[in-house]
Amino acid sequence: MNTSTLTKKVIKEKKQGEVLELSYKEEKKRKLYIESFGCQMNFSDSEIVASILSKEGFTTTKDITRADLVFVNTCSIREKAEQTVRKRLEFYNSIKQKNNPKMVVGVLGCMAERLKEKFLEEEKLVNLVVGPDAYRDLPNLIKEIDHERKAVNVLLSLEETYADINPIRLSGNGVTAFVSITRGCDNMCTFCVVPFTRGRERSRNPKSIIKECTELFNNGYREVTLLGQNVDSYLWYGGGAKKNFKKVDLQTQKKSINFANLLELVAQINPDLRVRFSTSNPQDMTIDVIQKIAKYENICNYIHLPVQSGSSRILKLMKRGYTRKEYLSLIDNIKNVIPDCAISMDIITGFCSEKEEDHKDTLSLMDYVKYDFGYMFKYSERPNTPAARMDDDVNEAIKQKRLVEIIEKQTKHSLINMKNKIGKTLKVLIEGVSKKSKNDFYGRTTHNATVVFKKENYNVGEYVMVKIEDCTSATLKGKIV
Ligand code: SAH
Ligand code: F3S
């Protein structure tokens, strides 16, 4: 592990002549196994981590039993997400006992940030705890482990965006990639742990974003998803966190680039590069952004627009920054400007003090919007968030019953939206071979709907026109025309 051990070994072997080259190389290629949980940002961060460690001589492996270093990039958003990680740690422990007692285990991401040193006390197996803004320090921390067995860095930053780091694409199909554009979040929704685990919001230099997207395109990628907790608040005026805005001179402010500008710059790289983005925040989404989506064919007609609740009273308690009416007027604007726009949501059931009438408001809002897709959750109290000081008074059975009701409604809406596509011919980007059949490809439409179809003589990464013939609530089936 340790470079000094490495040097010693090399010197020792030098005396033996020939063997040197081979074993030096073998020794140098230490193996990293990295697993990610939670949001797309975590998957994207893991690619940054892999890049930082590749410069230290690590290669990634998909076989945990061969790993010298096992990293888990963690999520704290709900208690269940944290329990999943704890279970994974038990599994790593069994591998360590069985295969490699020297295996180093590191916890990255949101749980690392939330629990800090406490993690080392709670999970004896863990050697390394590293928060989302401290990945550049990983090479030092790994060296530290050789002496101390444990190392921690959970410092949050006002500037870090890893702008210059070229991610190593891990989960790659070679066609679609995530590109992070902002980090952190300043919104402080009362239920949410993210502002505590990922720190203050900051935007990444647009030049580095355009460079990364252009390189991806030149390497055969055909879709980028711009990532941030709140992409609509992207703002670049020459550097630093958004909070420093007032300190910048007028000259620089004039040249500022907002999310609508950035979207346009990325769309202009090439008409064959599809652009998606996530996540939009209803209170920050501007008409400019909606117009850019309408203007460029390659900016996908799909917006993930979490609503959380259909009740203005609950939205206020959640500090969401919009009312039911404002959210619905944004939906109307989107549908007016982009008639063929798919919309998805996040909804939380059973937030503090939620009554049956609030829940009914959520159901009626869903009936109005008829979302194409959705992610639905039971409220999970997170320690130290503002909502943790409120009474988590909706019992588990009611949370569950309401969750089932919204999931059932959403499944119906998804099916209606999918059925509406039958008979249409839609442009699909081929992303890979279908898991169910070797003879089929899968890809997505501009609406983010998955389509499965016979391969014929096409290749992954190509666009094809597919006539939709059948569907379920989750998948379209069709034929290339
Ligand atoms: N800004 C990010 C939010 C990440 S959290 C984004 O919009 O993607 C993703 C979703 O998890 C939130 O939209 C919310 O619906 C859900 N969520 C967040 N905190 C939660 C909690 N304490 N309990 C249940 N669901 C939560
Ligand atoms: Fe969380 Fe709200 Fe930000 S949900 S990530 S605090 S926009």
Protein described:
By secondary structure, the chain is α/β, with parallel strands linked by helices. The chain folds into four domains: 3-153, Rossmann fold, CATH 3.40.50; 173-297, Transcription Regulator spoIIAA; 301-420, 2-Layer Sandwich (Transcription Regulator spoIIAA), CATH 3.30.750.200; 425-480, Nucleic acid-binding proteins (OB fold (Dihydrolipoamide Acetyltransferase, E2P)). It has helices spanning 3-14, 20-28, 40-54, 79-98, 110-115, 118-122, 138-148, 194-198, 206-218, 250-254, 259-267, 287-295, 312-317, 324-337, 356-369, 396-419, and strands at residues 30-36, 58-60, 69-74, 104-109, 128-130, 151-153, 176-180, 182-183, 202-203, 223-227, 235-236, 257-258, 274-278, 302-304, 342-349, 373-378, 425-433, 440-444, 450-454, 463-471, 475-480. A six-stranded parallel beta sheet has the order 2-1-3-4-5-6, with helices on both faces. The protein has a five-stranded mixed β-barrel with strand order 17-18-19-21-20. Helix 1 runs antiparallel to helix 2, helix 11 (259-267) packs parallel to helix 12 (287-295) and helix 15 runs parallel beside helix 16. The model is unreliable at 1-26 and 243-251 (pLDDT under 50). FE3-S4 cluster (F3S) binds at residues 185, 187-189, 192, 194-195, 229-230, 281. S-adenosyl-L-homocysteine binds next to strand 15.
